[in-house]
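Retry 2 of 3 after timeout on previous attempt. Resubmitting structure tokens to design endpoint.
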């Protein structure tokens, strides 16, 4: 089984689609997948923020395309990723700095630091950053 390690450090709508598209495709292809959410990337798994992620300025026309293509909303993709076994790691340091706790995020996240992620990523076949 291959391993895919993803760092999510940006928190916009396009970032979310990149992260969850790769994560779900990898998991569906029998890869072991972990995503480390840090800084603005925590928005992608934040219970409230992930329902209203910002569209990049000047790209508002994509909203209609997402709807026409029946692209799932981010909360749906989060659930799909979790159903496929994608491991979510919330950055402890960033959560502390922002005053956030596990209750602010989707159920099932692991809270850990860089060492937690590096332990997973050290023998990953693919490592990506978004």
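Retry 2 succeeded. Sequence:
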């Amino acid at each position: 089984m291959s391993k895919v390690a993803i760092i999510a450090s940006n928190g916009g709508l396009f970032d979310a689609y990149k992260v969850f598209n790769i994560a779900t495709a990898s998991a569906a292809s029998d890869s072991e997948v972990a995503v480390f959410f840090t800084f603005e990337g925590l928005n992608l798994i934040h219970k409230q923020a992930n329902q209203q992620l910002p569209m990049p300025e000047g790209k508002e026309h994509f909203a209609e395309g997402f709807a026409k293509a029946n692209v799932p909303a981010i909360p749906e993709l989060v659930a799909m990723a979790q159903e496929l076994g994608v491991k979510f790691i919330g950055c402890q340091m960033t959560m502390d700095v922002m005053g956030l706790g596990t209750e602010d995020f989707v159920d099932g996240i692991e809270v850990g630091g860089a060492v937690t992620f590096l332990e997973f990523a050290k023998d990953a076949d693919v490592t990506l950053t978004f």
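Attempt log closed. The chain has five helices and five strands.
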